[in-house]
Amino acid sequence: MGTDLHAPLGQGRPSKTKRSWRGYKAVLCAGVLIVCVIALSIYVIQEDDGLRRVAANGAQTASEGKPDPSKEADSADRAPQSATSPERTASGANIERIPTGDGNYVTKYTPRDRTGPLVIDAQRMGQDPRIAGQPNPDLVEETENGKLPIIGADGLRPMDQYARPWSGERGARVAIVISGLGLSQTGSQKAVQQLPAGVTLAFAASGNSLQRWMQEARRKGHEILLQVPFEPFDYPANDPGPGTLLTASSAKDNIVRLHQAMARVTNYTGIVNYQGARYLSDEKALRPVLQDVAKRGLLFLDDGTSSLSKTNSVSDAVKLPHAFADVVLDGQVQTQAILRKLDELGRIADRQGTAIGVAAAYDESIDAVRKWAEEATQRGIEIVGVSAIVRDKSEP
């Protein structure tokens, strides 16, 4: 009720014009809604009809695509045999559709012509780090001694498959081999975990937990060698250990010992001698052993401790990839002395392009190599696996 009692009755009420306008708006909204519903219904009906027509056309096209036997001969005569319809995919491959005599087409895929560098059979050098701890099943054979390395049916060698890739540049290259892994668990752990991946690790055939250490080392990128004991001049006073290859033994017995050592671990690129001055100087004893190493697609590293070694001449004769160590790094087991030897190794590499140094897995050796490798990289010296330096006369 209004608050002014003296105002004339009937004033202040809403006008009839305003009430009429509200009603008109309600009718208009209802009409628009009805029109939208009708339009949507018509659209759905038309789309459904269109889909039916597309389905019918697709069926008709499929039926037309079937060859008509009565027209095959004519179409074959009309289409020249050399006619092709080349296309190119987004990946760069060329596609050609070549007609055949029965009216069908054969699709031919060929690589696009390239002027840049090509990667050829990259799987033949190195392994995917995710599976580097597992042997390539095509490169092992099961024997009574265990799994032994072999050359694959396609000619792939273990020394190539398990090699550490390198840059291929012409700068100075140094290979450093730390040997004796597997003999000391703490020494093996330190070498595997602390040394740069470019350092080659040699596992003693008489060591422990070799497969486990090998797998960890390979996953970290290291190239692997197997260290086999050979007879020294002062044997048996100086005994390299069980399974030593002896000049007095038959070739057959020495091959058996070699295979027993080889079966202790997998994924290595080659063999390095442990001692063996007498054995390596005896060509008659050495030849059958190096022949077996060669036929299995491995390399041989002579640690360079014997000036009487026949490794070079025998390896050349049997086409065995091989190399000699230039410097024994740990003649003095002191960090500073080893660093001086590493500097000498670097100078040799600067002078002749490549150099190989060897040391045992002492704490001092590992510390010195780790420190020197960082400096050498800054000086432009590349630390590579032994396989990147070996002399390979088996290559064409």
TrEMBL record:
<feature type="compositionally biased region" description="Basic and acidic residues">
    <location>
        <begin position="65"/>
        <end position="77"/>
    </location>
</feature>
<dbReference type="InterPro" id="IPR011330">
    <property type="entry name" value="Glyco_hydro/deAcase_b/a-brl"/>
</dbReference>
<keyword id="KW-0472">Membrane</keyword>
<feature type="compositionally biased region" description="Polar residues">
    <location>
        <begin position="81"/>
        <end position="92"/>
    </location>
</feature>
<keyword id="KW-1133">Transmembrane helix</keyword>
<protein>
    <recommendedName>
        <fullName>Divergent polysaccharide deacetylase family protein</fullName>
    </recommendedName>
</protein>
<feature type="region of interest" description="Disordered">
    <location>
        <begin position="58"/>
        <end position="113"/>
    </location>
</feature>
<dbReference type="GO" id="GO:0005975">
    <property type="term" value="P:carbohydrate metabolic process"/>
</dbReference>
<keyword id="KW-0812">Transmembrane</keyword>
<dbReference type="InterPro" id="IPR006837">
    <property type="entry name" value="Divergent_DAC"/>
</dbReference>
<dbReference type="Pfam" id="PF04748">
    <property type="entry name" value="Polysacc_deac_2"/>
</dbReference>
<feature type="transmembrane region" description="Helical">
    <location>
        <begin position="23"/>
        <end position="45"/>
    </location>
</feature>
